[in-house]
Design a protein that fits this description.
Three copies of one chain form a homotrimer. The longest helix of chain A is centred in the last third of the chain and has 19 residues. In chain A, the strands form three sheets. Chain A has a five-stranded parallel β-sheet with strand order 8-7-6-9-10. Chain A folds into two domains: 154 residues, Aspartate/ornithine carbamoyltransferase (Rossmann fold), CATH 3.40.50.1370; 160 residues, Aspartate/ornithine carbamoyltransferase (Rossmann fold, 3-Layer(aba) Sandwich), CATH 3.40.50. In chain A, helix 8 links the parallel strand 7 and strand 8. In chain A, helix 3 crosses helix 12 and helix 4 crosses helix 5. Helices cover 34% and strands 15% of the residues of chain A. By secondary structure, the first copy, chain A, is α/β, with parallel strands linked by helices. The two termini of chain A are 38 Å apart. Chain A has twelve helices and eleven strands. At the B-C interface, strand 3 and helix 4 of B face helix 3, strand 3 and helix 12 of C.
Chain lengths: 337, 337, 337
């Protein structure tokens, strides 16, 4: 795809080549995100960071990615009192807000809303999550993490065995990641979930039609034995009819260090889209894994900044300008770990 | 008026000369707002964007205008938990907050609050809307839009015929725009509203005392026939005793393409302070006008950025420095339309 | 203490030498905060301003201090819908958020939360207030104000007589200020409060064990007669079982100009951590003192910016770079008073 001036609305926009192009630019963002270098390549550019549904992690990640390229962020974090609540159409909102900034990131609880908004926007729009539908930058950062973790182990995404664990029915992150993985070769998907929360047939068909292997299981220990990656999810409580119903599925699959040691291959990578639910009744990923070097969950969020910087730089066509615009960081930046 | 260091609290501060001075500076801001050039003339300056009443459009517009001049924005968007709620006076709030920034934009639901705040502020304050009272930058952007639209048609503000439609009793934007228009020559005001929502006598007297013409009507079709500008407003639902009462006036006057074609002069300009209410029971300005090139409603909001940049630059006395501080934009900025 | 890369969690971290080092750097920030000079020494650096408990004054003060050094601010102002509410641990939140910024300021209503957060953070954390526990930058700005006010009167902190008035039981600011004052020599503390809201014994013991003098009183007029500083507090309504109970203590001690004139030494400094409660039933510090040049309450908040700039500059080790990075302010900055 040609990124210049494009909206990013869905993982369906990407082919393998475009994913690899994003990853290559993301790699080049490491010196900025790790505070070795500063760039001001987007100095004077404005991001409209429109979160009509609340978010801390994703909102701050996009905002920081833009700031790290030198731009300014104008933010909106509520919908209750917005013009949309007074009967304004997405068309009007988009026409107005796109006059204020150089790019818009938008999250909204309604599936399809960001796509509708983008049709009226005069500037590029990135989907920061539209309800249960899409969250493409999350899928990209997950796949980028897989790529980097496997590279450290001398492997690639091709021929990967990934075990997906938990609520595979409602987990938006899982659906998008699966679709991106189908762009690669010979992936083995082990799907571990309760019967009622299985990955829906349309996804399984898409995976199989691309000549990948699918194994389904309702047992954690059996399913994870041969995996390179274990991708654990929390129960998407907010998507169930009641919290009582959701609680029936909480804590069904719990990965901890003892299970990891007994059942996993050495150096199996552990991932989670976060937040993980650390309350006693859920605790799908135990804190006793925090010192396990294969726990990649915080590398995932760190990688999110790189992916978002890459998308911004590609869409605004400033990748080539980066080397010339860089200077060393001049403040104390020693990280504790 | 001398803008340097001034508060902007009311349209009453302006004479024709000062309005034209603002418009001239607003014109010079087009290269920055349209992303041809970048300026950093306010680099290091801080705007306190204090919205004690919620707003997306106006808040983001002021913030972007400041960013486009190179400055930083610190924002407040809630009042419930603020010090004012703990019994702090506007005097104290203003003395404290004015120590944090170079300029303050303030919105508050209480009429007169911004003026009271400004008396204790050590830095210039712009009224971003104080209840039903004033919103001077909205009136300026409306008049600036009229000026530019008429100029494209070879006319000026003088000798204009404007039809104002809808809730003329509670519409703050209408009141301020009328007062600004009286500074010009020979304006014909056609006021179209339900009997109960007529423009109040004190405004009509002021208009007439400046030798302008006022025609009142309760019929849309008759009223708009000879107008150069049709300025449509939504029913100010929040100002009525109940939403039932407000709903009696919703949808009474609806402009759409069929009515426009049948009753209006060619190239009649259509304006609205936005948001327009696109719900079926209101719909005062139909979406079938969206492709009509005379629909100026999104040029209004775009012009708002120019007007706010102009006010900032005049108050902080940096207009002369702009040419020397400019450089071309270095990222991809092609607008879609 | 070595500031480089440190967390600032409690006043217990400071000795007299480190307090004086902060004050010296704060002095050097005056040209920037008073808008004579601009520095961009932190250009490209990002502050995570995480206010999980609402605040306008402290939040904006930290944000402006960072902006004045040239850095960018990413802000969070709510907790209801955050990941913490979905069961995320402080450990996870800290690991994630510390990947997005160069420093974090955090406020949270739970005592000890910021310290717990800081243990997992990869970047320095400043405690912006953790419930009734600590708010070290407030204590530092209070002491810095005392130092500057006394210096103008030819005195130092040593040998000071300070009268603390009001709710000494729940006032976090009072506790921390007292602890900092014990680092100096021969302080006389006069504690004026209702019997039920006395400073708790552990603080009094600490003060006495450092060879300072403590006098307790339940009478305002008697207590303030010989003081150099009168530090008045509001009743911490939110810490009482009911607002009825709190209201029993409101308005018990009221300082106004008449009392000041009759009972105080000339030039006695009046301080308050703000907000002062100006409602008729409280009004602990009357508005008729607003023109009294010894009212230092707004100099306190102005000094807060200097202290916070100093902490940032010391922790990130950029103090030495400031002179070379400075240029004159290029916009109109005349303050009104």
């Amino acid at each position: 795809m040609d990124f210049k001036g494009s909206h990013i609305l869905s993982v369906d926009q990407f082919d393998r080549h475009s994913v690899e192009a994003i990853f290559k630019v993301a790699d080049s963002m490491i010196p900025y995100a790790s505070r070795q270098s500063v760039t001001r390549v987007l100095e004077g550019a404005i991001l409209g960071n429109m979160f009509f549904e609340p978010s801390t992690r994703t909102r701050v990640s996009f905002g920081c990615a833009w700031n790290l390229l030198g731009g300014e962020v104008r933010e909106t974090t509520e919908i209750k009192s917005s013009a949309i609540a007074k009967g304004e159409s997405f068309y009007d909102t988009a026409r107005v807000l796109s006059g204020y900034s150089d790019m818009i990131v938008m999250r909204h609880q309604t599936a399809g809303s960001v796509e509708e908004f983008s049709r009226a926007s005069r500037v590029p729009v990135i989907n920061g999550g539209d309800g249960a539908n899409e969250h493409p930058s999350q899928a990209l950062l997950d796949l980028y993490t897989i790529s980097r973790e496997m590279a450290h182990r001398g492997q690639s995404i091709d021929n990967l065995h990934i075990a997906l664990v938990g609520d595979l029915k409602f987990g938006r992150a899982v659906h998008s990641l699966c679709m991106l993985l189908t762009l690669f070769d010979n992936i083995h998907f082990t799907l571990i979930s309760p019967e009622e929360l299985k990955l829906e047939p349309q996804y399984i068909e898409k995976i199989k039609s691309s000549a990948h292997v699918v194994t389904e299981s309702t047992e954690l220990q059996a399913g994870i034995q041969d995996a390179d990656i274990i991708y654990v999810t929390r129960t998407q409580e907010e998507r169930f009819a009641s919290s009582e119903e959701a609680s029936r599925y909480k804590g069904l699959f719990r990965l901890n260090q003892a299970i990891y040691t007994e059942f996993c291959k050495p150096n199996t990578v552990i991932m989670h889209p976060l937040p993980r639910d650390s309350r006693a009744d859920a605790n799908e990923l135990d804190n006793d894994l925090n010192e396990n070097p294969n726990l990649a969950i915080f590398r995932q969020t760190d990688n999110g900044v790189l992916i978002r910087m890459a998308l911004f730089a590609l869409i605004l066509d400033v990748v080539e300008q980066l080397p010339a615009s860089s200077r060393p960081v001049n403040w104390y930046t020693a990280r504790r770990f």
